[in-house]
């Protein structure tokens, strides 16, 4: 197969930017080329150009989803950035109100962040520190990760930071062919739901939320897209609510007023 030409690379970049805000610099071309080449080979197409034609065909939504999965990373694990969960717990302990609590894990990937939060909130409910009316919404662009998140089944390794006590309380250990896998208990799953959402398009009607995780997804976007996404997401956060980003992502120059708490954690101005 011929190499990925600059023109075709530009077409892929434009399609992905328009659809989901992915922004690829020229330096990403070898990576994009190798990721798409194996897919093209697998489905028996003759060229990158033929594959891009497929991506432009609106009847090929499944292949488009496949390309999204190839060009993004879904890396995640339970209790990633543990200080964020500690801060959330401390903040909830200070709340006088034990009323409903709504959390959004935006770009949830396989749901590790949503279920980690569910473990924390469920523990707090057991200790009488939180009322029973709490819910977590996990959203992502990838249909594949959402299906898996809704199943709530994980390789044991992704729960390496989950304390033993919570493992026993909230996880069913797989046996036989499922050895090495764990499944989230129904008591947690009842509070967590997942749905598809593209952060770069409007999502009116969502929220309001008390806590939002928007971690490790902004890396894909250029600065104007980052600002637009962060402001749109923050519009769904209640004043005084907590907002978490990946600690390596830096501060986004959004228009919404935020108070910096610890790296990657902010409070929306009241
Ligand atoms: C690295 S994962 C982050 C998972 C989790 N938040 C964490 O920090 O562990 C990034 C996720 O962003 C999703 N994503 C990329 N572009 C998106 C978009 N435009 N809208 C919604 N999700 C998107 C990807 O599908 C991927 O699952």
Automatic annotation (TrEMBL):
The keyword Methyltransferase applies. InterPro entries: Bact_Chemotaxis_MeTrfase (IPR050903), Chemotaxis_MeTrfase_CheR (IPR026024), CheR_C (IPR022642), CheR_MeTrfase (IPR000780), CheR_N (IPR022641), CheR_N_sf (IPR036804), SAM-dependent_MTases_sf (IPR029063). Residues 1-249 form the CheR-type methyltransferase domain. Methylation of the membrane-bound methyl-accepting chemotaxis proteins (MCP) to form gamma-glutamyl methyl ester residues in MCP. Keywords: Methyltransferase, S-adenosyl-L-methionine, Transferase. The keyword Transferase applies. One of its GO terms (biological process) is methylation. GO terms for molecular function: methyltransferase activity. It holds the Pfam family CheR_N. This is Chemotaxis protein methyltransferase. Gene3D superfamilies: Chemotaxis receptor methyltransferase CheR, N-terminal domain, Vaccinia Virus protein VP39. Its EC number is 2.1.1.80. It catalyses: L-glutamyl-[protein] + S-adenosyl-L-methionine = [protein]-L-glutamate 5-O-methyl ester + S-adenosyl-L-homocysteine.
């Amino acid at each position: 197969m011929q190499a990925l030409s600059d023109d075709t690379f530009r077409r892929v970049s434009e399609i992905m930017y328009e659809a989901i805000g992915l922004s690829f610099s020229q330096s990403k071309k070898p990576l994009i080329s190798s990721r798409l080449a194996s897919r093209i080979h697998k489905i028996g197409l003759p060229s990158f150009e033929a594959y891009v034609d497929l991506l432009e065909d609106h009847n090929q939504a499944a292949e488009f989803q496949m390309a999204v999965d190839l060009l993004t990373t879904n890396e995640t694990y339970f209790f990633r950035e543990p200080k964020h969960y500690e801060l959330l717990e401390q903040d909830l302990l200070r709340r006088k109100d034990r009323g409903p609590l709504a959390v959004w894990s935006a770009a949830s990937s396989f749901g590790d962040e949503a279920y980690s939060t569910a473990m924390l909130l469920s523990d707090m409910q057991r200790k009488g520190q939180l009322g029973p009316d709490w819910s977590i919404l996990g959203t992502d662009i990838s249909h594949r990760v959402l299906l898996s998140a809704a199943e709530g089944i994980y390789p044991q390794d992704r729960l390496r930071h989950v304390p033993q006590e919570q493992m026993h309380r909230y996880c069913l250990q797989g046996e036989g062919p499922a050895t090495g896998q764990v499944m989230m208990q129904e008591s947690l799953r009842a509070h967590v739901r997942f749905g598809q959402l593209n952060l770069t398009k409007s999502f009116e009607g969502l929220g309001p939320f008390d806590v939002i995780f928007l971690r490790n997804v902004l890396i894909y976007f250029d600065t104007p897209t980052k600002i637009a996404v962060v402001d749109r997401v923050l519009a769904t956060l209640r004043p005084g609510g907590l907002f978490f980003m990946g600690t390596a992502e830096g501060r986004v120059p959004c228009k919404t007023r935020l108070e910096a708490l610890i790296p990657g954690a902010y409070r929306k101005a009241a």
